[in-house]
Design goal:
The termini are far apart. The protein has a single domain, classed as Arc Repressor Mutant, subunit A. α1 runs antiparallel to α4 and α3 crosses α4. The protein is mostly helical. Strands 1-2 form a two-stranded antiparallel ribbon. It is globular, with a radius of gyration of 12 Å. It is built from four helices and two strands; from the N terminus they run ααααββ. A hairpin with a 6-residue loop joins β1 and β2.
C-alpha cells in the first residue's frame, strides 16, 4: 500500500534518489531537515521515511505517536556515494 502511495507522487528513479539521500546521512534524521534539503512536501518526505522504516533501513529515534526523528539501523551500512 505504501509503495502504491509513493508511486503516485514519485517515479522509481526519484524514489531511489530520495532513499539514497536519506540513508547517506549517518546521524539523526529529521523530516523537516530532509524536506528543506530536498525541497519536497512534508507529506512526501514522511512517506519516504516511513517506507524506509518498513524496509528495516531506518528506525524511529524519537517520538511514538508523532515521530520527530529517525536513525539508520545498525546493520545498514551502505556505501552510497
Amino acid at each position: 500500500m505504501i509503495r502504491q502511495l509513493l508511486d503516485d507522487e514519485l517515479d522509481e528513479a526519484s524514489l531511489s534518489f530520495l532513499k539514497k539521500e536519506v540513508l547517506r546521512k549517518e546521524e539523526a534524521i529529521f523530516p523537516k531537515e530532509v524536506e528543506g534539503y530536498l525541497k519536497l512536501s512534508d507529506k512526501t518526505i514522511r512517506k519516504v521515511l516511513s517506507h524506509l522504516v518498513d524496509k528495516n533501513m531506518l528506525m524511529l529515534a524519537s517520538g511514538i505517536k508523532m515521530v520527530r526523528s529517525y536513525r539508520l539501523r545498525n546493520q545498514v551500512k551502505l556505501p552510497i556515494r
